[in-house]
Inverse folding.
């Protein structure tokens, strides 16, 4: 079974609008971490935001916020005031600790911002 | 600026030759680094976890004799693709985990290496 699911292969948003990228995860461990990364066409993976499983509040980093709904096992990324430079692939990832400490990535969502 | 440096960014080699890719952590000492492979329009596939001073832990299906990983210092890990063949052509990307952040421990990524084997 997929541990990280991103159901939107592609999304379009107009400049200055907000957009939500979906991510659901599956784990039975009580301790885990959720990450979002941006991968522009250059290929580099850029860290955006982190949410710990025990964090009570939703994480925010500038224009990025994470809508963390633990009971639903979802960790959606919200980008406010989209910019043309936001066009990229976005990957959701989960850090699990057992049986091995590693990040598991979703399949990604390609976001296109248009003027 | 980048906290993880990866070189080269692009390499073309002949079939049968070996290629070495370097991954350097610039801002912190990384006891743990990771090597991923990414096929076009796909997600990252973890190849191996590299621990400083010990043998790398390879994911199932990854040939350790084919993809040699050395993590000789806290700031440098190398991936050597031995006897490369066209099917090894891919995008390889490394990451370093920043220590001391508790559960957060962000993984910072290099810019990747595009390998083309002729």
């Amino acid at each position: 079974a997929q541990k990280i699911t991103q159901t939107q292969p592609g999304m379009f948003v107009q400049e200055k609008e907000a957009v939500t990228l979906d991510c659901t995860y599956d784990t039975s461990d009580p301790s885990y971490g959720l990450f979002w990364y941006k991968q522009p066409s250059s290929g580099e993976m850029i860290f955006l935001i982190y949410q710990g499983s025990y964090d009570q509040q939703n994480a925010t980093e500038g224009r990025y916020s994470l809508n963390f709904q633990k009971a639903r096992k979802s960790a959606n990324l919200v980008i406010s005031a989209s910019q043309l430079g936001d066009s990229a692939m976005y990957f959701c990832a989960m850090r699990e600790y057992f049986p091995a400490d590693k990040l598991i990535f979703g399949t990604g969502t390609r976001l296109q911002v248009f003027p | 600026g980048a906290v993880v440096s990866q070189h080269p960014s692009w390499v073309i080699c002949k079939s049968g030759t070996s290629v070495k890719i370097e991954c350097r952590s610039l801002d912190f000492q990384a006891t743990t680094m990771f090597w991923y492979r990414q096929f076009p329009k796909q997600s990252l596939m973890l190849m191996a976890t590299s621990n400083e001073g010990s043998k790398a832990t390879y994911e199932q299906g990854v040939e350790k004799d084919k993809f040699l990983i050395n993590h000789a210092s806290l700031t440098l890990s190398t991936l050597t693709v031995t006897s490369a063949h066209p099917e090894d052509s891919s995008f390889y990307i490394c990451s370093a985990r920043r220590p001391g952040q508790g559960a957060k421990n962000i993984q910072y990524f290099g810019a990747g290496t595009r390998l083309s084997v002729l």
